[in-house]
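I have been asked to look over a protein record a colleague put together. This is what I was given:
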Amino acid sequence: MKPYYVYILLCSDGLTYTGITNDVARRYHEHQMGLNRTCFTFKRRPIELIFEQEFNDVVQAIYFEKKLKKWSGKKKLALANGPFDLRQILSECRNATHSDYNPEKDN
């Protein structure tokens, strides 16, 4: 099984970019070289990789990436600068039958 990674980049203007990939080095290089002119990071280079987390399950990686994209830049920086308990984030129930499930809460 191929691992997937959720990563956070710190852009030169202080903004953060969150993404998912199966090859962090390749993806970082693509961002740094500006290979995609429409990418968020294109005009914000140079960039710095400040966080990466490996996942064996792509569904779990996608869930984590979507969760991080809703976070503020400050919270992402706090995650990158650790310590941060990823187990807490990853263990949150996403089952619609669970009593804590409330899709309106994330909006």
